[in-house]
Amino acid sequence: xxxxxxxxxxxxxxxxxxxxxxxxxxxxxxxxxxxxxxxxxxxxxxxxxxxxxxxxxxxxxxxxxxxxxxxxxxxxxxxxxxxxxxxxxxxxxxxxxxxxxxxxxxxxxxxxxxxxxxxxxxxxxxxxxxxxxxxxxxxxxxxxxxxxxxxxxxxxxxxxxxxxxxxxxxxxxxxxxxxxxxxxxxxxxxxxxxxxxxxxxxxxxxxxxxxxxxxxxxxxxxxxxxxxxxxxxxxxxxxxxxxxxxxxxxxxxxxxxxxxxxxxxxxxxxxxxxxxxxxxxxxxxxxxxxxxxxxxxxxxxxxxxxxxxxxxxxxxxxxxxxxxxxxxxxxxxxxxxxxxxxxxxxxxxxxxxxxxxxxxxxxxxxxxxxxxxxxxxxxxxxxxxxxxxxxxxxxxxxxxxxxxxxxxxxxxxxxxxxxxxxxxxxxxxxxxxxxxxxxxxxxxxxxxxxxxxxxxxxxxxxxxxxxxxxxxxxxxxxxxxxxxxxxxxxxxxx
Length: 494
Description:
Elements: H1 5-16, H2 20-40, H3 47-50, E1 67-74, H4 79-82, H5 98-104, E2 127-130, E3 135-138, H6 142-146, E4 151-158, H7 164-173, H8 183-191, E5 201-206, E6 235-237, H9 255-276, H10 279-302, H11 309-315, H12 325-337, E7 342-348, H13 356-380, E8 387-392, E9 396-397, E10 414-415, E11 419-424, E12 432-434, E13 436-437, E14 444-446, E15 449-450, H14 451-461, E16 471-473, E17 476-478
Parallel strand pairs: 1-7, 1-8, 4-12, 4-15, 5-6, 5-7
Antiparallel strand pairs: 2-3, 4-11, 8-11, 9-10, 13-14, 16-17
Helix pairs in contact: 9-10, 12-13
């Protein structure tokens, strides 16, 4: 059979031709994506909108949560006095653990390394089983006890750091090194904003009430953007005065004039960007625009006069006082309600090296009802299912006493080998306890969860593959979870 080149051309033409039906079938997907993009806007697509690499899509997982609220207890709450019940230790009160610790290869801080003895200090607080799930919770957290069936408690967290600054950097930025992006900034970068008039990432600093608390210093590195564009940094709302500085225009400057001024500055910035190509110029322009919109949105956000007395009763009387934890929890709900992706509440004073019974009780009283109210408020508004709430510190506390031990008083040093956090909503199992420590609340004996695993799980619940959310910096594809293994903790997911 002879081959006819004209026939070949006809076949090729036939194969590449589009019928009317084929055109609409092939175009439907692209038109649908274009329509969705126009509805969502570029900021709601986050890093997907900025990336040209369509093979590296972030939304490879169906998201369970739209937003997250992280309650950060700076100083490290004592797991053995709150959630990790060890009743068998009562019979071993004051037992010297010095030789046992040496055998275990204990890392000692400079605060206890010179002690002649390491007496075992069981918790003096009573525990009881709460809820249908029967979770053991300390008497220091009576409001938490009421919501035991809402909580997913992870008792097997562990970290690499033994001191506060590196431990806080690790749990809030994914590394003990400075200059990295915080978890809230990663989420703002990956997911964008649901409200163009508010930042995607907001930070609240709640006051502590005890005058005796050992308060650790923290810095903006914990909510900073690091190597990410500056627009993804957390915006801290002030607990006193105007929530944001310069919220009001100066006298004699009407709103219309402010708009003209910003447009003029933006035009100059655009010329500078075209000449220099510095992305921080674009960041500054975007910050001006957001600040202009926040002048209208923040006063409404901060005005709690529309909240009902029933809501104030739920959060407690301190919710009416700016800067308290209860007020911050209420503000977190309002921010989540208005589409803020990530809200972080910092509450300091959880570093009890001495006088733990007095100081831990005071710290728990600060946050207990507010945490309960936040979870219940989200639930009754139908928001808990798609809001992930996380509660915890940077590491745990030792079972041995730091300083003098009495039957009513003791202190605890830092302990990175195990600590407890809890999560609620956002697709995690309610009324569930995961992980187990040994009889000393010293080592994890079942289901360890590293800080990197926690990060991978949080991202997963918000619909992000932690291995795909990257940013090119210094020649590397940087990730929140870094290069060491990190795993989503599927066992705690509903």
